[in-house]
């Protein structure tokens, strides 16, 4: 666990962390040793001259003062390392997340990473800050006390020592068996969360099916699975907890019996016997608390493991000596790209001369959006080369590459802020006039006129307060403001009604003027205005040429458009294709 | 959001939730009490052992061994009872959580659909998941902790008083000292620091969500170096606040910890004991119980500090759960009335999502059975809201929606959903088999019917291509494209076979095949059903029996499409305004529509 921790934190924290653990250990040892002085104190108090206890008692007080000082220092050190770790962790994670390729952020990952980076880090670090000291103390103090016992009476000490390997073995084996249960449980929780989200999003449909009254089976099953997993993990935690308690109590009983025997028949003084029993009772509580602490530490371990996975994901390599492309033509040279064991782009070659427009057409799932993502280097190719201005995108500084490209996505994400702030993101140093001009060109002024707060209207998280078309206009204004020589458009108008589409189209026309454009399209009008069209299917370029050429050819492309133009017969069976 | 003042409300709702499990819960507590008290036996055995051994004169050996056996038995009892209590507690916890989650699921299946639109799915999922889990300490740990924190110290205290009241008071000094330190942690400065800490924590969560969610935008526009500055600033800000908070509180906390630590308590007891023994006021053997039980007296204070955060968090979670459970569902009629026929009428319907902003301002509309009514209008005119009133996602604020002569509010929800089917833009497929997805609205449909609907929706061939055909699980065995998902949704509505069909003509279909499938389906259904469609395509509008032109929540024109066009009013102008945008597709294909495009 400490090893994972250090790997996640980075080496620079190893030293201070070790120092803190050492301090905590010293504190625990000091506590254990100070108890040694209780033996002479009690011997005197139980003896005939109780006054003689005072010097020992003063000694005990001194020892506790040392313990108190050590404890204070180690507590403070724990707090400090805790905050330092927290800061370090956030920075490390933030830096790393910023360097990971956009392609890494799948939809399911977004949620997971958000939770991990906000709550997860804090949970893991606070567990370390709060539980490390109790854990060290629960292990070390009893061990020291056993040492003290050995010094006073080897028989009693030895009997106590028996507990050490058993407790250690139980701790380790419980840890192992619980790790599997915890993983299982987490899996079930995850599954159930997915089902809940599905259930919520499918409400309209489910209600249409009249499933408002009966339990929704898919969800209910997964909720039951959660309960079963929790029951299983409770039952499998039981042997460990019972075993630990049993061991501790059996050893205490043994000490009680042995002490009594030695006091009655052996040579152990009554005071020593009683003191050792008092100390043994003192050991029991911290040892029993190990079960609890162990459980909490395991929780932190699973968060750490997830952090470790994220941090060990390799970002896309950056060129040691980046090359600045001088032109803005685009080229795919025998590109192969695989994702999740599926070949998405299969040996595709095509080129777009500077200032020309290429339309990519094809059935859904053909790999159209992936082509755009490869150009912007959201992923790296598995074979072949993607070039911008004749330079391999892997040899271009990512900042330089992104500065050349304006992308308008199908799904627009807006930041929680005003419309103006979101537009300005395209070029933060733009003047107000430039921002307004871009917004007007994207016909965003119509939107701001309607909103009560106009330009200062808040768009809500993710842009939730605007409609799809309105968000799209913001994103086009942003791209216009960026004024990049290469424009990538991903089915921009597909989610819009005709009115919004008309508005957005005007903006798009302005955006494309004089630039190198690749657009994924499914509306014939967009395609018609492109210089060239490629028809993509199964990741391959099936046909290539101008719109008219391809239509005349009567191949896949022509079929693709024809199907939407065939008049519909009232008898479905007779609709020949 | 309940603050600390809502504690009793939380307790009440927890009480209600626990009522069915009262017996198990009582068993948990009773077993815990017996176990904890039995745990005192070995300590008392040591005390008795000391008394017997320290007595002058010959040792009563039988008594000694009896004491030892009683101690050992006490330990055994403690082991069995606490383990049983803990196991029952955890299993009970699992049951309570399951009950809670089922209640929440049932509730979420009843609340008005409109309620969802103002909430994030993730937040609600968190209530059902994490918030319910946060109840765990309440049920699984609190009984045990409370017993060991209060019952055991109380029993010890009573016993110690009977032994020697002076030394008992001395033993309590660490507790008094610790309690005296508590006000220092509640000074205005400390409270302010705590609030700042909470605030900074909220900021870091929201900035990380933004950072991660918007990563593609940030990378495409912001440049990756500037991208996470906001996140790091929030992180630094948070750490600084945390530091300040820790700094303010660490000395007091450390002092408290020290005062309550076993060595310190032991020192106090020994000093007090030594003073009393040397003064001849205490028998040496009577010191033993204080050494053994005295340490336990600090437990309540320690427990208060420790469990407080968790309990507070659990309280907040329960608050969120009860908030969801308290939402009023759309009222169900006590005596459902059966509709006569499937004529749909909207009578002076007004509706708004917010108090003062009406989206629909007095809609009067009749949908005759067997006709197609197309709704057109600019975005924001209320089209989607209007069609959502038919499946009763919302109730109108004024006026009524009537189906077959019966107000929807007097129709049972079963009857309503049997009568009204809909296809909206937002396609949701479940991670279940293709067949189950299609049959979602008709759970007991025959496979034949499912296949027929799939054929009609032009998705049958695609389904057969997937590895397990109709049994392929979507998202696991087979991934569907947007267009394919739309066609599944269409098949779903076709299978439902409801006499009233509400359709938000998917504004743009992911591919031409889907577009064709919808057109074909509409053509097939016509004449049998009452169809209300938000129309985007020229053909749909042209084929409709009635066109309703909506503007700013009012019907501005209504009639047969050709008539309206000829009238040259609002509809004609609207059509003209985006005719150029849409007609291009058609013209480009070289098939210019003639004047007969509106029959």
TrEMBL record, chain A:
PROSITE patterns the record matches: ABC_TM1F, ABC_TRANSPORTER_1, ABC_TRANSPORTER_2
Residue ranges annotated for the ABC transmembrane type-1 domain, each copy included: 21-299
One example GO MF annotation: ATP binding
Compartment(s) where it occurs, according to its Swiss-Prot or TrEMBL record: Cell membrane
Top-level taxon in the UniProt lineage: Bacteria
Membrane topology listed for this record: Multi-pass membrane protein
Pfam families: ABC_membrane, ABC_tran
Keyword tags: ATP-binding, Membrane, Nucleotide-binding, Transmembrane, Transmembrane helix
Residue stretches making up the ABC transporter domain: 330-563
Transmembrane segments: 21-42, 54-73, 127-152, 158-179, 237-264
Protein name as catalogued: ABC transporter ATP-binding protein
Organism: Streptomyces viridiviolaceus
